[in-house]
Amino acid sequence: MADLVVGKDKCGEQRLVSLPLSRIRVIMKSSPEVSSINQEALVLTAKATELFVQYLATYSYRHGSGKEKKALTYSDLSHTAEESETFQFLADILPKKILASKYLKMLKEKREDDEEEENDNNGDSDDDEAES
């Protein structure tokens, strides 16, 4: 069990996890299905979260461009979420960064496309009514 010890708490005692258990408890209790949380479940959830974050960071570093700079970047994480089937569920949480100007341009184009589509649909229904 000594190999699981990760850090030390405020009093200098060794801890099994690095993440703050009180924060994890708050997050877990925010679910309406959870009424009480066993201490062992809390510690296991914290440890599993640490291991997941470590795996995500390591995978992103190895497969990203940050390796050349010896740094892990946000773009490495977002690329991993987008490209890796394992981390696909994170794609909405870690979207690729784009400039605000590009985003506004994309929104404008989408609105124009929607308007054209709406006009085409309205034009078709008017023609159908005229033929009847």
CATH architecture of the largest domain: Orthogonal Bundle
CATH structural class of the largest domain:
Mainly Alpha
Order of helices and strands: EEHHHHH
Q: Which residues form runs of ≥5 with pLDDT under 50? A: 1-6
What fold name stands as the CATH topology of the largest domain?
Histone, subunit A
Q: How would you classify the helix and strand content by structural class?
A: mainly alpha
Could you estimate the helical fraction of the residues in percent?
A: 55-70%
State the fourth-level CATH superfamily of the largest domain: Histone, subunit A
Using only C-alpha atoms, the radius of gyration works out to 25 Å
Could you give a short account of the major beta sheet?
2 strands, antiparallel
* Global morphology: flat
Q: How much is the average pLDDT?
A: 81
Task: Record the strand order, biggest sheet.
Answer: 1-2
Number of helices: 5
Strand proportion: under 5%
Number of strands: 2
Overall tally of structural domains: 2
What gap, in angstroms, lies between the N and C termini? 81 Å
Explain how this protein is built:
By secondary structure, the protein is mostly helical. The protein folds into two domains: 2-97, Histone, subunit A (Orthogonal Bundle), CATH 1.10.20; 98-132. It has helices at residues 21-29, 39-63, 66-69, 74-83, 100-131; strands at residues 7-8, 14-15. The protein has a two-stranded antiparallel ribbon with strand order 1-2. The protein is flat, with a radius of gyration of 25 Å. Mean pLDDT is 81; it is low at 1-6.
